[in-house]
Design brief:
This protein is mostly helical. Helix content is about 65%, strand content about 0%. The protein has one domain (about 60-275).
């Protein structure tokens, strides 16, 4: 009974903190939408309302059930890495550098790690949980909150775990999470911004919108969160112009909270993985 009470208190505290964290982006993007779209903003609101409602439901589930778990996993992960001697870079190495430089390097390292983790999420093994994020057909800044619990946990463990292994101090890991999280709101926003030539350096809203396009030509492109040059380095950068194609997924996923949550547990969601395994055993091919 005491454990349940502690969990409920922790969940309540997480909700309050999450609402406070959402206040700045809500105010920013609401103001921006009014300035850019004027009266058309009301038509847009009516159009995105069903998807926004689902985004909020998934976000509330995340706050109540997942964030408290992440808090526990964070401590356990740090202890395990230390105990197993998996810290590759000594913390003393970062201690001699100015904090600003350490934060910039942490964000860069975090985005490189996030790039490869994101590519992994687009493989048959992790796609069924990551597909929830892509299933929003009316992508807005609040789409960033639409993540399956499995995807949320795997993202935290991979990104933060590898940064910890690189010996980055706690403040740098936290700064990386905050910078990439809040910048994530911007690149998911419904904004026709390409950044011009700067779009080859930093990820723009248009660049990331192409990543969410339900168009086979766009599949396997634009994985980075902050630095577009990472995609350019690995040949996955693609911004042919403004993105006016349909968004979403081709997966048979119900647009309900239950449909989104249980999709990752349906055997047929992994048919590409099973087909690949059968092909490997039968012919020695890679199944792609």
């Amino acid at each position: 009974m005491e454990q349940i009470e502690t969990f409920l208190i922790s969940s309540g505290e997480q909700i309050v903190l999450a609402l406070k964290a959402l206040a700045p982006p809500f105010a920013f993007f609401t103001t921006l939408a009014i300035l850019l779209k004027k009266k058309a903003v009301f038509d847009d609101l009516r159009r995105v309302l069903p998807e926004t409602r689902l985004n909020i439901q998934i976000a509330l589930l995340d706050i109540v059930a997942v964030l408290p778990v992440i808090a526990l996993v964070s401590t356990a992960l740090a202890d395990a890495l230390q105990r197993l001697g998996l810290i590759i870079v000594s913390s003393d190495f970062w201690g001699v550098l100015p904090a600003v430089i350490v934060v910039i390097l942490a964000v860069l390292a975090g985005d490189i790690i996030g790039y490869w983790r994101h590519r992994l999420e687009h493989t048959p093994l992790l796609w069924p949980s990551h597909a929830v994020h892509h299933s929003d057909t009316e992508m807005t800044w609040i789409t960033l909150l639409r993540f399956h619990p499995i995807n949320r946990l795997s993202t935290f463990v991979i990104d933060s775990g590898l940064l910890m292994m690189l010996g980055f101090p706690v403040y740098a890991v936290v700064a990386n999470n905050l910078v990439r999280h809040y910048y994530g709101y911007l690149i998911h926003a419904d904004l026709p911004w390409t950044y011009g030539e700067l779009g080859k350096v930093f990820v723009s809203p248009v660049m990331h919108r192409w990543h969410h396009a339900a168009d086979p030509v766009a599949f396997g492109t634009n994985y980075a969160t902050v630095f577009a040059f990472i995609d350019r380095m690995f040949g996955t950068w693609r911004v042919p112009g403004l993105c006016h194609v349909a968004l979403g997924v081709t997966d048979d996923m119900a647009p309900t909270l239950a449909g989104q949550m249980f999709y990752a547990f349906r055997p047929r969601a992994y048919r590409r993985l099973f087909r690949g395994l059968r092909t490997k055993r039968g012919t020695g091919r890679d199944g792609k």
